[in-house]
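[job 4471] stage=fold_predict status=RUNNING
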Amino acid sequence: MLGRILANFKRYTFLMSQMVSRDFKVKYKRSVLGVLWSLLYPLLQMAVMAVVFSQMFKFRMEGVNYLVYLMTGLVMFNYFSEASNSAMTSIVGNFPLMNKVYIPKYIFPLSKCLFVGINFLLTLIPLFIIILFTGDANTHCVINIYYLCLPFAYLCLFLFTVGLGFILSTISVFLRDIFYIFGIILTMWQYFTPIFYDITILTPQLQKVFYLNPLYHYIDFTRSIILYNTMPSINNWLWCIGTSLFVFIFGCIIFKLKQDKFIYYA
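[job 4471] inference complete, writing structure tokens
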């Protein structure tokens, strides 16, 4: 069965690459700066957030570069937010194409996550610029050997997002209200993820609730390396791989069980 899945995936690799390329062309069509916005946007966002949280709300973290703390969380959450939203609408948005020619339906949400993933990799460039050139003598971050573990956190985030994208795109076929419901859920999810603040300001009971948020573990994994120059704990590794694989496999199962009924709701 696994061999059949891999063969099918390889067969449609070219089609998926074309869909990702199409999304790039559509996104940056008639844009003067084009793909440079993938670099400028996080920098501009950082500037706004820095003013709001560092100057207006006076957020501080002792011994930590707050700009890097903020940006590591924002970059990862922004990928999750944009990719999951794009994957959710991918099936409904491609109903006309699905009615004309056979295309494996999983390609649509997967290609959206890959497209946003490429943008995510581009946003890592300004993030590392911030890491290298901000902070004082006590908070300046340095590149260390543990950076080799960062792709693991990004892969777990990708698998989690793809799995959730499969679930959301399936639900959206049968319940279009999910477009609005998930927008509200994302807003709540953002505030329940320690992007702007440190989880230690919460009560121990509330911290236990926040530990159930998979995004917390992916971001915390990254911050352990970038901000604290330490290897993430074993629990952190297990939470990351466990939550990502569970949601990915569950999403694949749900999508496969329901995909043959999509065409009846076009």
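[job 4471] summary: Residues 2-265 form one domain.
[job 4471] exit 0
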